[in-house]
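Structure tokens please, single chain.
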Amino acid sequence: MLRNVIFRQLFRLRTVNLNQTRFIYILSFVVGLLSALAAAVLKNSIHYTRILFKEGISFESGSYLYLIYPLAGILITFLFVKYIVKDNIGHGISRILYAISRKKSYLKAHNTWTSVVASTITIGFGGSVGAEAPVVLTGSAIGSALGRFFRMNYRQITLLIGCGAAGAVSGIFKAPIAGIVFTLEILMLDLTISSIIPLLISSVTAATVAYFLMGDTVLFSFSLTEPFIIGNIPWYIVLGVISGLLSAYFTRMTLFLESSYEKIKNEYIRLIAGGLILGLLIMLFPPFFGEGYDTIMSILQGNAGDLMKESIIGSLPDGLLAMSLFMVCLIFLKVIATSSTNGAGGVGGIFAPTLFIGGITGYLVAVLLNRTINLDLPDHRFVLAGMAGMMAGVMHAPLTAIFLIAEITGGYDLLIPLIITSTTSYITIRRFEPHSIYHIQLARKGDLITHDKDKAVLTFMDWKKDIETDLHTVKPNDTLGDLVKIISRSNRNIFPVVDEYNILEGVVSLDDVRDIMFQPELYQTTQMRDVMTIPPSYIDIKENITAVMEAFRTTGAWNLPVLNDGYYAGFISKARIYSTYRELLVQFSEE
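Here you go.
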């Protein structure tokens, strides 16, 4: 097999004492190559599966197939995941981020292919999701597998994961710059000399392979005929604000709907419910079938009116009101279609749905402004600016949005509108959501690694390993004489006071008894409850490291007790945490 040949050659290079940096460069090339191949396989599989099942379906002759196909696709995907994969492979990008922060960048080997198969079935049968997150997970898993195979350290494996992600985005969109920026903004890898070169190699390799396999056409090919007009800047700002508000709606609705599906404990009821909702939405609004890129292309080509004909609104008289109603339904119902696909058991991402909503929003804003206040805004420019604005808002990634839309359209003349809309959208959503849809749940759990090295180190720390459980405990009724005997064989100066149920009642320190421990007449009359003190705070073992550090900061203490469900579990030392912190900081700072 090709993979085995590649691995043997790489292993031979590894064993000839090749310079570490050069070996990373070689691996980044291999990761980019394999990621691009995975992207090509996925795109073509979805394309031909879609043609096979959608060919000949129309609103008049076979719209009920729109109800059946998505449900069938989700069912097949569910069975594939449940009985073959036997692991959760949804939410690919969040899974990568969690692996980086909590699993030492370990991604399971099956992720190198299972997401491609599952998303092909889901999207090919009409699932209203994108293929980008699954292929990013695939590319990252390839990087993780190579890094672990050659026994590299955490930083090097993380870099290879970034190379896989950059290669996947670059390969699926033929957008090398966007691939690199995506890795920096979404996966939050640091931009250093040691990281940028491998990312460049992987991204450019993937784009080159994509051009070789799929031709040199861009995803949305069209010609710009109007020059950029400065007078339109205020309207791009308006579009940016609207995109930011819609991004907040999309983010919160996605989290709400997916959590609602999770509350349905019976997997088959959840599958049927989500599949029927998705199928009904597609039957009423056929543009929801699949990724939705053909819908955007139709709008860019001036065929927006044709999209409405096969929908439930197609029977209404043509006009601004009917078109606006149709577009508003697409904008606000797309999130339900996407969440139903994933919530029911499908596998896919929110990349394509975000671009879908953004493109339609931009078109609707331009049409309404043109028709109501007699402006002459170029609607295709607003379509693309809306896509960038929505992506910048939902993903909190304005640079990725700017460069991706510029690269997939070949329209670098759009840079100023893209920058204005993306920046405005990002500023707008930051007032509602401090984290992107990929990061929000990880941030709530304290599992998110950011560009802030201090926070990154804290996130990576497992403070529970530093809990000291070897301290000698005493009972509240123990006497000073009992304590003196314990002190004589202890090398610590604090002694937790616990009752018969192991519930902490207080702490006795050596300083508390120093003045009386040499007075034998007090040995039998002084009990621990008489000299113990109440700790300034307690730390629950379920707390994250941020809460632990905050407790030390607010109390000024050097040692604090740790409780597990209310029972005494040990003590945590500020000095030990700082020592671990310094060791990890050195690892994160190495070039």
